[in-house]
Amino acid sequence: MQLVDLKGKWKMRRLEGPHWLEASVPGSVYHDLLNAGAMPDPFYREQEYGVLKLSNYDYEFRRTFQIDTGILAHDRVVLRCEGLDTLCELYLNGMLILNSDNMHRTYETDIKAALIPGDNTIHAVFRSPMEYSLRKQAELKLVNCADAVEGISHLRKAHSMFGWNWGPKLPDMGIWRSISIQGYNSARLEDVYITQTHGEGRVSLDVRVRTEGWVAAEREIVVSVHAPSGEVLEQRVSEKAGTDLHIGLGIDQPELWWPNNLGGQPLYRVEVVLNQQGKVLDQQTLRIKLRTITVKQEEDEWGESFAFEVNGVIIFSTGADYILEDNLLARTNCERTDRLLQSCVVANFNTIRVWGGGYYPDDYFYDLCYEYGLIVWQDHLYACFIYALTEGFEENITHETIDNMKRLRHHASLGLWCGNNEQELAWDEWNWENVTSLQLKADYIKQYEVLLPAIAREIDPNTFYWRASPSSKGGFDKPNDENYGDMHYWGVWHGKEPFTDYRKLYPRYMSEFGLQSFPGL
Questions:
Q1: Domain ranges, residue 329
Q2: Does one domain contain both 244 and 348?
Q3: Residue 65 lies in a domain
Q4: Residue 67: its pLDDT value, please?
Q5: Which of 133, 155, 182 is a domain's end point?
Q6: Is 422 a catalytic residue?
Q7: Inter-residue contact 245 to 238 (CB < 8 Å)
Q8: 384 found inside a domain
Q9: 171 Cβ neighbours under 8 A, 6+ residues apart
Q10: Is residue 520 part of a domain?
Q11: Last residue of a domain, one of 270, 288, 306
């Protein structure tokens, strides 16, 4: 239950600098500097190189907000941070309440003891991602993308912000997603997960609801399903809310979701309400699809097939990879993404691959993909680098993976989770084995063929998991083989091969290929 929304006007400056600038949250250092006229446009000529130097410094954000006694009366009051980019120390009324080191995670911390009635001050200090990455690289040298700042695989931040062959080096920082104060009494919804079983003329839903309670009391959970028309199809009330409940509902004559050009995209809603003595303690509303989707893999005369199967129908995927729409993430919004995805529909796409060098998009991205009939191939956010699977790194990415799988698994558009972009290929073809260690190669197997699949089986077992892109059979066994799994091909353009060479390939699933465009005038 949100009590105080902390988005809006803040102040920002270089750490302990002389002047505070107007800032906006969600936002970033670059965004605020650009709006204040204190930074050149990084997209004009070669000004990105001067802007890059700004990331060598630390920055701080500050604002005051009001708290009344009613907020303090809640049993629990937490600060929820949905996007801190990246190395952040967060203070409330001078008390350190949170350290973050992962742009892709959601952080929650109990702040009731730090709040006071009346004026409160929140203060965020962001440390330089450049200094951190280069320092860690000096301590342990890891293989790097040639077009990026060195050492960035030590830091859980969107890799392409540090440069790629298609984009500039602009490692921004700041509060880039929502930040709010939330209060709860007695209990709250910890997790809601919906699975579905399809039969003849009926879909059965299993709504698993986990609650967190800290006061002994009688509670109930009410689950209702709303048809695309808005009509309530079925409602179930649990007799008593336990910590882990399975509530079953059924939908007769279901309207199925189909990819673009193959059928409609009807929307169902599931509402889950946690009550205590007639009072709402917490609630969630999920937009769901009714469909089955997996990847069909069957042996044949060439090798093994690899294709999306939706509602029992094998489809041919047409689409493209989705990368950052803007290096200044504060300038992206639903309207801009909507225009982009509408153009995909016009181009007869039915699939979008969220590439592993970026970030997990906002919920509106997946909602729009649902509405337009676009299946989302979702990479986890590892690309073209080597990672050292230390104990701390493993713990960090485990939290990151769970956070994002729980947030995205109910979206109708989600069709596949993929472990990484081009790492298995790199170990096989880019000479990594001769420039690094067998320990790091073993770390790869543990991360992508053991750890992440195990999390997927626990958190989202109904969505197909693919170990890497490209991959064939795993274990570094010819990962870019056109007869198995998916394939990447950059011979045309990157390899300077002729267009006609496309005619020589017969991949089972070409998940990445293309041409780099000229820069905009």
A1: 293-513
A2: no
A3: yes
A4: 96
A5: 182
A6: yes
A7: yes
A8: yes
A9: 52, 55, 129, 130, 149, 152, 157, 161, 162
A10: no
A11: 288
pLDDT of residue 112: 96
C-alpha distance across the termini of the chain, in Å: 48
pTM: 0.95
Helix/strand/coil for 55: helix
Q: What is the pLDDT of residue 438?
A: 92
Which residue out of 422, 424, 449, 497 is catalytically annotated? Answer: 422
pLDDT value at residue 241: 58
Total of domains in the chain = 3
Both structure tokens of 155: 């830091």
**Which pLDDT value is given to residue 146?**
82
DSSP code of residue 324: -
DSSP string over 78-137: EEEES-EESEEEEEETTEEEEEEEBTT--EEEE-GGG--SEEEEEEEEE--HHHHHHHHH
CATH number at residue 224: 2.60.40.10
Q: Which tokens go with 262? A: 């193959």
Give the length of the chain.
521
pLDDT along the chain (521 residues), means of 10: 91 95 98 97 94 97 96 95 98 98 98 97 98 96 90 96 94 98 93 95 94 85 93 79 83 96 95 91 93 96 97 97 96 97 98 98 96 98 96 98 97 95 95 90 97 97 97 96 97 94 96 86 70
* Neighbour-count burial for 204-219, b at 16+ CB within 10 Å, e otherwise: ebebebebebeeeeeb
Distance (Å, whole) CA 297 – CA 384: 26
